[in-house]
Structure prediction request, 250 residues.
Amino acid sequence: MKHKDWIERFLAVFVLLAIWQAVAMAIAQPLLLASPVQVIARLGTIWMEPEFFGAVAYSCSRIAVGFLLSFALGIVLGVLAGKFHVVEVLLWPLMLAVKTVPVVAIILICLIWMTSSQLTAFIVMLMVVPLIYANTLEAIKSTDPKIIQMAQTFHVPFAKRLIYIYLPQIRPFLVSACSVSLGVSWKSGIAAEVLSIPHGSIGELMHDAKVFFVTVDLLAWTLIVVLLSLLFEKAFLMLLDLFFKRLEKL
Prediction:
């Protein structure tokens, strides 16, 4: 990223924080809206509380599991749908339903069938699969048919076609899908935790902060979730880029 871009983003964040501070000072009611100064000060102490690292580890592990499952499943389903039209037709209503039904409704329905500790990973998987699937399917469909015909003519095994033809084609679509779906993972995962209240999770602590009107804690945990989401996104995209670079050397 260029130096100019960093400056522009820093200024954008500064402006938003200044507006937030001005609104908080105008309201003058920390119970309704804590100021960014108060929230930042709380960030300096919240990590020292005994439940902090346990909650972060709990939520991170389940959101990571849900995302990785959806990543693998979305790619497999996308490749199958691209290769077999009947699979695409059969999956269409399911993907449409998942994309259109409100996530809150899905969480409440799923709570009937599973425990709160199982819900987070499942909801993340359910919300992210359509994004990975749609981008993978689009990548497969946009592959040059002449290359596929040539591979079939020379009887190239499907495994090699997948590595040398499909995966390089999927790469830009997959990176784009992951950039969006990683944020969706955290939003849907934390929403599931707030509603199901699994013990020892970030969602439970956010729910408690809301119930007891501790606005500064609620906003502090919100910022922590944003930071964790950004770190998770950067780390995964870095690993994905490393994977494709290793693939190019095969």
Remarks:
- The chain has ten helices and no strands.
